[in-house]
Amino acid sequence: MFPTHVASNIANENPVTSWIRLKYEDRLDKTMKYYTSKMVIVQIIVACAFSISELYWGMSYPNQCPIEPAIIKFLIAHGATKFAWIFLTILAIVDARLIYKVMNKKSLARRLILINLAF
């Protein structure tokens, strides 16, 4: 169960706990700043190009590698995993730009970014 007076509990924290909370929020704010940068867009484009090429080569040439037959499975799995990473990164960008900056709901955006970083 959650306490009914959350604001009063935060106000009554000891100095060490409030310092930890400030550091935690500061790190999440830096993460939000990263996801609003243009470098993330460049990373998404490059990752998309690599994952498309991995999936293409993995699906186009099945069972044609005499040295390592499992390389095809690796290419397909890695390309699909990278597409999942791209999807989560796009969600983080939406979270950082829309919820954090436009809607100005910083606590919600911090919680959502933690979920995104966990995966």
User: What is the rounded distance between the termini?
Assistant: 26 Å
Strand content: under 5%
Query: How much helical structure, as a percent, in the residues?
Result: over 70%
Q: Describe the sheet with the most strands.
A: none
Low-confidence stretches: 1-8
Which radius of gyration do the C-alpha atoms yield?
A: 21 Å
Overall strand count: 0
Structural class: mainly alpha
Could you say which overall geometry the principal axes of the C-alpha atoms support? elongated
- Helices, by number, come to 5
Describe this structure in words.
The chain is an all-alpha fold and 119 residues long. It is 80% helix and 0% strand. It contains 5 helices and no strands. The chain has helices at 6-11, 15-35, 38-60, 71-102, 106-118. α2 (15-35) packs across α5, α3 packs antiparallel against α4 and α4 packs antiparallel against α5. It is elongated. The two termini are 26 Å apart. The relative contact order is 0.12. Mean pLDDT is 81; it is low at 1-8.
Keywords, please?
0% strand, elongated, 5 helices, 119 residues, disordered N terminus, mainly alpha
Summarize the structure.
This protein has 119 residues and is mainly α.
How do the strands and helices of this protein lay out in sequence?
Blueprint: H1 6-11, H2 15-35, H3 38-60, H4 71-102, H5 106-118
